[in-house]
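Schema walk-through. Below, the input block comes first and the output block second. Nothing else is stored per chain. Lengths vary across the set, and this one has 275 residues.
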Amino acid sequence: MTSSPSSKRARTTASFSTTSSSAPYKLHYWPTIPGRGEPIRLCFEATSTPYTDVTNDPSSKEGMSTLKSLISPSGTGSAPNNPPHFAPPVLEHGELFISQLPNILLYLGPRLGLAGPEDDDENAVYHVNQLALTALDGFLNVAHDTHHPLAIGDYYENQKEAAKARAKDYREDRLPKFLGYFERVLKSEASKGGEWLYGGQLSYADIVLFQCLDGVRFAFPKAIEQIKASKEFEGVWALYDRVKEVEGVKAYLQSERRLGYGNGIWRYYQELDAE
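--- output ---
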């Protein structure tokens, strides 16, 4: 079983902000779906970091009320210096409220020991962030657009034919290209051994890649099985399995707290999958 990096904190919280390290972490995201909130949950779980998943926690009295307030069209933010938020996820840490998944990961990574070997690599966090952003591009943003290629606010049924064309291009072109990129990353000197994407240790880039691949497996099960059968990207799938064995991640995935896929970013439509 792979151990968690909970005891390895790359820098102290004081290096980044005045927010107290003892302040509780709260995640505000849509209830019942993994979505863009899931990489954040997995970072907390991988490092055994306590947090409250506000809209999914039955013991929380806030429910959706705080989230609705945070993203209200009439909202103007909060003191000190918190601008209003466009959409979740929103991370609350003491008096700090920040949104946008990559921004939240950039904030949490160093604090949770998930930003690479920063003791001897001052640029590690930026390389890790580069890898996480690429995974989000290829396996989250582009994957979402396969079922809503024309208009995000319109029904899937009204753009089904365009979705079929977009999904075919994704399965046959974009998906292999992104998998190939991460296979090259694992073979690079920066990986330090080929087990993890950067620096020879688990980072939030590995966690993001795992979650995004898991979502794509749900959306395109036949396509993924065909890709795996080709044995062309074995390093990527080995990393996927390795993240699943991280102690905290494994326990979380087996728990009822792991939310199922459905009508979110990663959706399964038979007609969009491979034949």
